[in-house]
Amino acid sequence: MSKQSADRKTIIVDGVPLPEILDERMIHDVVHGFYEEIRNDDLLGPIFNGAIKPEAWPRHLGKMCDFWSSTLLRTGRYDGRPLPPHLAIPGLGESHFRRWLMLFRVTVDRLCPPDVAALFMDRALRIAHSFRLAVAFSRGEDTLAIQPILKESL
Length: 154
What we know:
This protein is mostly helical. It contains seven helices and two strands. It has helices at about 5, 25-40, 45-50, 55-75, 85, 95-110, 115-140; strands at about 10-15, 15.
């Protein structure tokens, strides 16, 4: 057991102790690997590369590392508001969220053991559904018609 593991309190996520292998390094690798996929994607790359200037990417990646650290490791480092920038993207729809989730799944499956990949995906699926509901609501659309995207459908 590493000193970091020994110093870390047991974190419970959905009633299950967080796997010790999930640490800041893994979060860093997932975030950086995922956004590398995003930036090179035909559908999502133009959106992200248009919204985030090249010199702003290091800051964005750091913020996303803070977000996932707060989400899974309960560090409390993230204090931003992730929804408003997404609400400002014209035409953002299910196909974008599906691609986002598919690329995220590919990344976590490649970089994480199955139990950790499942934790990341569970959170990503919840976030995507919440954002899709918020986007529909902000456009005055029927939110009852928004069904969750299931991992099995990716």
